[in-house]
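Q: How would the structure tokens look for this protein?
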Amino acid sequence: MDKIYFNGMSFYGYHGVFSAEAELGQRFFVDLELSLDLSRAGESDQLDDTVNYADIFSQVQKIVEGERYHLVEALTNQIAVRLLRLFPFAEVKVKVTKPNPPINGHYDSVAIEMVRTRRDVSGT
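A: Here is the predicted structure in token form.
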């Protein structure tokens, strides 16, 4: 299976359990690993034989910047499900990093990574 990677997409969102997170928001980073057959695009060199990267980015941006979730787990799952419903991926791996969660301590960030397949999404 071939793969398309998106690394370090950055968005400003308002996700979190606490009211301050909903009010102030923060930066979220999203990485994608998208599995599909790219052999046709590799041979034809035509955009119609692959997926448009801008469309993928736009869908992720709509979710992270346009919707609100209490849990990074729900945000991550929504990205995976929407990408599987809208694009011909066999599998998606989504990692959402929240660099500044309200946790006392020293750390770089927290992140959730989920892998979903076409079988995991009913109706596709």
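The chain has a mean pLDDT of 94.

Residues 2-120 form a domain with the GTP Cyclohydrolase I, domain 2 fold (CATH 3.30.1130.10).

Upvote if useful.
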